[in-house]
Amino acid sequence: MIDQRIFSRRRDLFLDQLDGKAAVIPAASLVTHHEDCDYPFRQNSDFWYLTGFDEPDAVALFLSHRPEGERFVLFVLPKEPGIEVWNGFRWGIEGAMNRFGAEIAHPLEELPNLIGTYLKGAEGISFRVGRHPKVEPLVLNFWAEQLDKMQRSGSAPKSLEAPCPILHQLRLRKEMCELERMREAARISAEAHELARQMVRPGMNERQIQAVIEQHFLAQGARGPAYNSIVAGGDNACVLHYTSNNSSLCDGDLLLIDAGCSLFDYYNGDITRTFPVNGCFTGEQYALYEVVLAAQEAAIESVLPGENAEIVHLKAVRVLVEGLVELGLLQGNVDSLIEQGAYEHLYMHRTGHWLGLDVHDVGAYRLGEYPVELEPGMVLTVEPGLYVSDRIPVPDGQPAIHDRWKGIGIRIEDDVVVGEIKPEILTAKAMKSVDEMQRK
Ligand SMILES: [Mn+2]
Q1: Cα separation of 23 and 46, whole Å?
Q2: What is the pLDDT of residues 366-382, one digit of tens each?
Q3: Which H/E stretch holds residue 414?
Q4: In the predicted model, what is the mean pLDDT of residues 392-419?
Q5: Model confidence, pTM
Q6: Which residues have a beta carbon within 5 Å of ligand 1, which is an ion?
Q7: d(CA 383, ligand 1 centre) in Å
Q8: Domains of the chain
């Protein structure tokens, strides 16, 4: 787990950059699944990043305008044995201070009364509007009152700004301890993919494979799946967010699995592998698999300092389009096919995303006109694919697709750290070579 000193250092960095402003960062709330039942609790990643506190409804204040010793204030659900006997342990006020380093802590119900006292004197307020319906009116009312009084008081917060640019810039570059946790999430996720591939046989249901994968996550001490696992046989793999996972696996089809675990401190793995259900590629499957694998390997090679996510994407697209032209699934000049997007009926998504506390992690891909340069310690997924189905019409001028190609969906995804000299593939323990994907 991440040491408390790490959270404390992050708070110092955040407070430094707030520069006279006050930030209000709320925790997540429980979400109702159906009457009387909640979804498993999932902490807000910004709140977690700064506090390591895993309870719902708390609110953290970061007060860079206040003297030392009064800059990190937590409002938490108080200890209440009568409620804890139903819903479990709470750290309460004492725990918030002694265990989580809050300099001051209060019961949550005092937030409406006290928020003004703490925010007063701040030059601006840093708060994400539109996301926290219970806390937002408190922040806005305070600001409105201060503005009303400003003529006489002479001061009021001058701006309301989003905390995201500061926080997400910090979160984009992973610390050593974060990379350690991501290696662990990747290890468990990769092992689960290996287990799944070894046991798949024609006639099994997709759910049985999902169970094997998710059982391994839990048995290895992960919190659970990082996102809804995709276990998609045959044509189901051409539905990018297929999660019903309830079809029978057919002899002769491919199986695409996109699954990764989330650890208790919310670091995530995100892996996709595709292989034949019966252990043997058909000619068409083999040909397309080789193209996707070549595209993925070429793209991973460019996960280096100074490159950017756009370059990684274009590397993959070029290899995919070249391969598709060679196979007769596209026709024309490679450069103009890329320029026109004439491949998008076969490859309709981007090649990757940042990975961290959120699976689609925060951090800008572009700043204005310019793509963000990759730096050591950034982590992104590299996940090209090809999806051959009737869902998207073939664009004018491109060849009709013969039935023998249809129902093939392939994606190969690894989690990659931008390395000084070469990329570090966190998920390398999940096999992907053509030979490894086949059963002898
Ligand atoms: Mn992904």
Answers
A1: 12
A2: 988 899 999 999 999 99
A3: strand 414-417
A4: 97
A5: 0.96
A6: 270, 381
A7: 7
A8: 4-169 (3.40.350.10), 173-437 (3.90.230.10)
